[in-house]
């Protein structure tokens, strides 16, 4: 939202700045023709220019404030988690003692279901199968069911994404955040646009997936731990709903049904085999194996 406000400030100030310069130009032309212009009009143009410049500066500040401050070193992420641990118990001893809690070196995998409003973290220890670690309630997302297609459409995306260490943002305006990597190869092949789609805290969303602050602390800690202990990317699969037979039948009349059929094989493979499928994009379609 602050990015949008900043863009509006910048655009409006540039328009008025151009108008002010045109006004001064016209005033000078009249003066050369010896047509009197009262001093108060000159002052008005000067004040207008000053206000436009101030508005432009404010707009730039809003835009810069909303840019994510990414960190790309193991030291930085660990240092942030240690600092959080002093005030927010991100990974506590009860969790560490749990048999369902990932330890450094474990691979993790995120699944989100819009209709059920849940985020799951699964983990795999060494050569074992994936096991469910924990399920969190998604506080809010926006735009209803269906894929995100355009910048500013307020839609939370669906599909197959990944996050990595340089996409973590511990200094987010929304407590903690990580970018899911939208648009992916499929989205780009379709010409879909958008940026800065996050999983974050603060329970507010305009296209992102928002969690409670407590929830994002736990999720962020697990993602950061995995990326700091050998996992290069964390897969994030976002489904419209749990794609079992009953739900597929329920939503078969949707305009998004053909797209959802491309997501379903990934859901089925993980449900039956507890493995993350290989996913590619060919001719603007997902290929899932």
Automatic annotation (TrEMBL):
This is L,D-TPase catalytic domain-containing protein. The chain crosses the membrane at residues 6-30, 44-65. Keywords: Cell shape, Cell wall biogenesis/degradation, Membrane, Peptidoglycan synthesis, Transferase, Transmembrane, Transmembrane helix. Pathway: Cell wall biogenesis; peptidoglycan biosynthesis. SUPFAM superfamilies: L,D-transpeptidase catalytic domain-like (SSF141523). GO terms for biological process: cell wall organization; peptidoglycan biosynthetic process; regulation of cell shape. GO terms for molecular function: carboxypeptidase activity; transferase activity. Residues 108-239 form the L,D-TPase catalytic domain. InterPro entries: LD_TPept_cat_dom, Transpep_catalytic_dom. It comes from the Bacteria. Belongs to the YkuD family. The active site is at residues 200, 208. Pfam families: YkuD.
């Amino acid at each position: 939202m602050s990015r949008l406000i900043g863009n509006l400030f910048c655009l409006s100030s540039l328009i008025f700045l151009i108008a002010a310069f045109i006004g001064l130009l016209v005033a000078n032309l009249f003066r050369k023709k010896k047509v009197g212009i009262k001093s108060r009009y000159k002052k008005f143009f000067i004040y207008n220019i000053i206000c436009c410049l101030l508005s432009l500066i404010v707009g730039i500040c809003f835009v810069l404030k909303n840019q994510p401050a990414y960190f790309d070193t193991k030291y930085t992420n660990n240092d942030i988690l240690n600092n959080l641990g002093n005030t927010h118990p991100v990974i506590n001893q009860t969790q560490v003692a749990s048999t369902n809690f990932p330890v450094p070196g474990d691979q993790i995998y995120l699944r989100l279901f819009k209709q059920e409003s849940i985020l799951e973290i699964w983990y795999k220890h060494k050569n074992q199968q994936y096991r469910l670690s924990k399920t969190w309630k998604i506080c809010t997302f926006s735009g209803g069911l269906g894929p995100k297609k355009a910048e500013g459409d307020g839609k939370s995306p669906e599909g197959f994404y990944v996050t990595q260490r340089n996409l973590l943002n511990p200094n987010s305006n929304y407590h903690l955040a990580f970018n899911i990597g939208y648009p992916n190869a499929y989205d780009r092949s379709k010409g879909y646009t958008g940026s800065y789609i996050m999983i974050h805290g603060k329970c507010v969303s305009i296209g992102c997936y928002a969690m409670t602050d407590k929830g994002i602390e736990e999720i962020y800690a697990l993602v950061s731990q995995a990326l700091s202990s050998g996992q290069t990317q964390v897969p994030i699969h976002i489904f419209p709903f749990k794609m079992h037979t009953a739900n597929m039948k329920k939503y078969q009349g949707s305009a998004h049904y053909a797209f959802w059929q491309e997501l379903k094989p990934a859901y089925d493979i993980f449900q039956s085999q507890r493995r993350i499928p290989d996913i590619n994009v060919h001719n603007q379609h997902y290929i899932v194996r």
